[in-house]
Amino acid sequence: xxxxxxxxxxxxxxxxxxxxxxxxxxxxxxxxxxxxxxxxxxxxxxxxxxxxxxxxxxxxxxxxxxxxxxxxxxxxxxxxxxxxxxxxxxxxxxxxxxxxxxxxxxxxxxxxxxxxxxxxxxxxxxxxxxxxxxxxxxxxxxxxxxxxxxxxxxxxxxxxxxxxxxxxxxxxxxxxxxxxxxxxxxxxxxxxxxxxxxxxxxxxxxxxxxxxxxxxxxxxxxxxxxxxxxxxxxxxxxxxxxxxxxxxxxxxxxxxxxxxxxxxxxxxxxxxxxxxxxxxxxxxxxxxxxxxxxxxxxxxxxxxxxxxxxxxxxxxxxxxxxxxxxxxxxxxxxxxxxxxxxxxxxxxxxxxxxxxxxxxxxxxxxxxxxxxxxxxxxxxxxxxxxxxxxxxxxxxxxxxxxxxxxxxxxxxxxxx
Length: 416
Hints:
Layout: E1 3-10, E2 14-23, E3 26-36, E4 40-41, E5 44-45, H1 48-66, E6 72-77, E7 83-92, H2 103-114, E8 122-134, E9 137-140, E10 150-161, H3 162-174, E11 178-184, H4 185-193, E12 202-208, E13 213-219, E14 222-229, H5 233-244, H6 248-257, E15 271-275, E16 281-285, H7 286-311, E17 318-322, H8 331-339, E18 343-345, H9 359-374, H10 384-392, H11 407-414
């Protein structure tokens, strides 16, 4: 069986779709698409028709790359008003002599832990295990195959308002996609970047999106808190557009292809000529436009630093920055100036994809695979005929090296 997975990240500026294959314990990219989105504002769906058309366009692009139909996906859910709650569960295992802990035992103890908390009017996104204890032995990350009778778990249950989930799931189902799992961008981010030191320390990830910036706090690689500020890459575009009287799309182009995130290495003689909104040809100096960009990025990072201080009173061991804006030239310079030497630009480890705008989508596939492994499940989003068609296609691939609406989603992991 070929293990192939599709993830969709519905953003305010773009809809990112990635298809990856797990082969020999390495995740390889098969295809990636980034389509300008409509009907999405600050990560929330404001126009269902326009948003649906954007998703359809992205899916069509991926299908043309692969030569097969996309039917099942993992969906990223907005982290607005998310809660992260510690839960615990404990049970005596009914194992016969010589039998060991199974994936079903893991699923059962997770279910038991979930039932220990009243989630009120919110919906569960996922449960992230911290560790297991088996017959007094603590700190176990995966108890499968071990022998014992008393199994307990500590985990973090992630909750979000129901509308955050249902709006996304409904949108994707309306365009003919089956949502097999849901996650959040800040869960995906930590799994995409996968820095080793994150597993043992307290740190933060700053994801600079188009209209918002998400700040998330992690303890040993597990998300524990998050917040959102209402500034992002769009504000940089607006600044450039206002100063030079440009159309928004022209301002975005200058930001992405000409300006630098820090003025230190910007050239005073490098000029970009463009027609402004009044029809006048103007010359934009790289140093001057980089000053404008740098000022706004500095504001975003200062606010992000304040949010980190609100989320935790202790000094964090690391700060990672991701999101499309973090890919700008010289971004590491301004990041270190504002946030200190513990700061680093995130680096996606998945072979074939390096752009940080895909970090959430790729990371949610990794998280999905980890859940499958923990529960001893074998699953792919493509059936045999799909795989045969994928294997025989001559198209060019980017391949290098219960009652609720979500009942069927969680059924894959909790044996419902």
